[in-house]
Inverse folding.
């Protein structure tokens, strides 16, 4: 691999992470900044946080979504998703698709007030996305999305394999 893009460097004779080339650093830093800003804005304006928003995004795509399904697609811990859905239900933004039973898993959908809240939050979210994309051409956005999908799939594979990876110092 070309040394100029390696995720590590040698400092004082030791191998250390080179933040300039370390994907994980950028993903974590960007995600943290975006989540922190969005969560503060959502809490101030709407009384819900970023995890509730992520749940709402999934509910907008399909009625009858379970906590496990939201967790699987979003990558958010299932217990955190369940607590967020309980909060949304308490605020009367979501309800059980089948109120006649207490079966598990529960499948939830928006209430009318939940749909209204989602529409308001969506507009702010799209404004933030527009600002994030500033300076990128349509072709660059398309290429970035293509590469992110590859990395997303690689991360999914890593998630499944991490406990079985043997340390190979020649591979890094």
């Amino acid at each position: 691999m070309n040394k100029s893009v390696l995720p590590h460097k040698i400092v004082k004779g030791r191998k250390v992470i080179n933040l300039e080339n370390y994907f994980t650093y950028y993903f974590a830093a960007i995600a943290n900044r975006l989540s922190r800003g969005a969560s503060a804005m959502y809490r101030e304006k709407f009384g819900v946080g970023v995890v509730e928003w992520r749940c709402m995004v999934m509910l907008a795509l399909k009625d009858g979504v379970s906590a496990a399904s939201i967790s699987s697609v979003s990558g958010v811990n299932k217990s955190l998703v369940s607590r967020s859905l309980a909060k949304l239900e308490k605020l009367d933004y979501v309800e059980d698709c089948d109120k006649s039973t207490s079966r598990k898993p529960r499948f939830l959908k928006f209430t009318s007030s939940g749909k209204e809240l989602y529409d308001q939050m969506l507009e702010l979210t799209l404004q933030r996305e527009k600002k994030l994309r500033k300076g990128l051409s349509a072709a660059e956005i398309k290429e970035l999305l293509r590469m992110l999908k590859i990395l997303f799939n690689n991360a999914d594979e890593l998630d499944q394999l991490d406990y079985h990876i043997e340390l190979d110092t020649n591979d890094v």
About this structure: Helices lie at 23-46, 50-61, 67-74, 78-90, 112-132, 138-161.
